[in-house]
TrEMBL record:
It comes from the Bacteria. InterPro entries: Nitroreductase, Nitroreductase-like, Nitroreductase/BluB. This is Nitroreductase family protein. Residues 30-198 form the Nitroreductase domain. Keywords: Flavoprotein, FMN, Oxidoreductase.
Amino acid sequence: MTYHPVPYRPARLPDAEALARVAALRQQMETRRSVRMFSSDPVPERAVLDAIAVASTAPSGAHQQPWTFVLVSDPQVRRRIREAAEAEERVSYDGRLGDEWLDALRPLGTDAVKPHLTDAPYLIVVFQQRFALDDDGGVRKHYYVDESVGIAVGMLLTSLHVAGLAALTHTPSPMRFLGELLGRPRNEKAFAVIPVGYPADDCVVPDLRRKPLDEVLVRI
């Protein structure tokens, strides 16, 4: 492809409206939490699809858009994903992670049992395309894949929360079983499993503290 510029003239918001919008979003995002206790109640599929569409607007290296979002609603497939994930997690919690990692996880109250993978009505399995496969079998390198897919996942989580849905970034390690189970091509590598749904009526989350702005911001 060759460089082909087109005009870009987005409307400039009045300062007051811009400040109000970002303040409202900040307030809403302050309530976002990673949820591990999901209701099995159905959620509007359109909301999930629109959130994925928002994620796909993320910037990416050389505009290669190196992501695939696999939306899983089939209960049997979700069960198989849970069984495979828990098998890997048992090995991890029984020693593969190491004491330092386990100590870091302790405030989250996690273990090898992952009911969110079958309780949530949807799983979004995010794959990163490490390279492109041409129709003739050729291979083209993708650039800044980790960064690109990470930004897209952040936008996905934000969109889901704005829609009133709960989510979790679950990363069983290793995740090779996801590509095999979901029949993904050889250029795709699993990046995260994101359960999506409503929190269960008895949902609890860890009592955690976010760093305030003055701890994460450096002015120069």
